[in-house]
């Protein structure tokens, strides 16, 4: 069966597919020795492949004898375009007073190039206003995130008996797998919309700081990434809780089959993150050990889902499905067909290994642009997917349950599981004995 979230985190997926793409040659041929020097900068098929930092700066900065563009106004327009894309993509770069002051000084100089009609001034004014709004919005969201529910509560750990069968469960709120899958997608897109390029780049920054033995307290505050990761954990634990807390085997079997159908609908929508979270929850030990329950489950559909999420060959099956969803999204006419929500843990680990395995500079000292182009491409794809407007109408009742329903801790899940189906071997008997002793001591 599929590995648990904890094991999946420990076994990070590799990215061998990138090895051939990120060759170390500056010309696409044999890599020169350290003593040799390639032509600076190096282009391949019209794209910048490598170059020394000095040569790149020299190519960009005007001097007495060289000017990147003879027309001052044209040059100013390019600077505006650069600043516009920078402030829109990485607004956090300007959150401190010093950076904002430097931005305003540059903007002031540029406006002097177009004093006749004031077009540049209007563009810069709008750019600055959008930047301030973006910073304000993210600051407010950060305050809200602090109040997000933790991945799991301790509710259930002090119970000696299972909950009453009349207690509210997910099926009493939503019994249609498609509807629940749509509401999960709504939550996913809402969470994803608050992840920005600088959040993803903090992965790279944090790794660099560790390699340089520096303490980077600013980059470790990955609030958006942590909040999204917590959502995955919450959903996994919620699925396990909903299954383990059911008293009767027949109803428990129905619950398992329901979540299988929900995961299947998530796959059809393109919501791979919720699908993975559901499968992970069903493969947690307290659920997986319920053999009598699983014997009554029609597992053919579950086997197909596990095949898609098979971790072998660097999650090859999942990546094929993700590529298919991405291609569908590119040619889609409706938001429904544009939805692509990747398994976020795997997406993050791809960036991690892409940065870790390939050096920033080639052996000849030139900057390895192929590496940064690939990182940029992956982040660009994610930004494209996160901009899709959710086509499903929000159901407040279902959303409230998903985000606030009680979640059992791992200990509570095992207690409920053993009460449903007693221990079958010496190891399980010892575990059950230890749990009961713990409960008695708490009482």
Features:
mainly alpha, three-stranded antiparallel beta sheet, 21 helices, 3 strands, elongated, disordered N terminus
**Rg from Cα:** 26 Å
Q: Which residues sit in consecutive blocks of at least 5 with pLDDT less than 50?
A: 1-39, 146-165, 213-220
**End-to-end Cα distance:** 36 Å
Q: How would you sum up the major sheet?
A: 3 strands, antiparallel
Overall geometry: elongated
Q: Mean pLDDT, as a whole number?
A: 78
Strand content: under 5%
Strand order of the largest sheet: 1-2-3
Q: How helical, in percent, are the residues?
A: 55-70%
How would you characterize this protein structure?
- This protein is an all-alpha fold and 443 residues long.
- The protein is 62% helix and 2% strand.
- It contains 21 helices and three strands.
- The protein has helices spanning 5-10, 53-60, 72-89, 97-111, 119-145, 170-173, 177-192, 197-211, 223-244, 249-269, 272-282, 285-288, 291-294, 300-308, 312-331, 335-338, 344-357, 369-386, 396-404, 410-420, 426-442, and strands at residues 42-44, 47-51, 367-368.
- Strands 1-2-3 form a three-stranded antiparallel β-sheet.
- α3 (72-89) packs parallel to α5 (119-145) and α9 packs parallel to α20.
- The longest helix has 27 residues, at 119-145.
- Residues 1-39, 146-165 and 213-220 have low confidence and may be disordered.
Short overview:
With 443 residues, the protein is mainly α. The protein has helices spanning 5-10, 53-60, 72-89, 97-111, 119-145, 170-173, 177-192, 197-211, 223-244, 249-269, 272-282, 285-288, 291-294, 300-308, 312-331, 335-338, 344-357, 369-386, 396-404, 410-420, 426-442, and strands at 42-44, 47-51, 367-368. The chain is built from 21 helices and three strands.
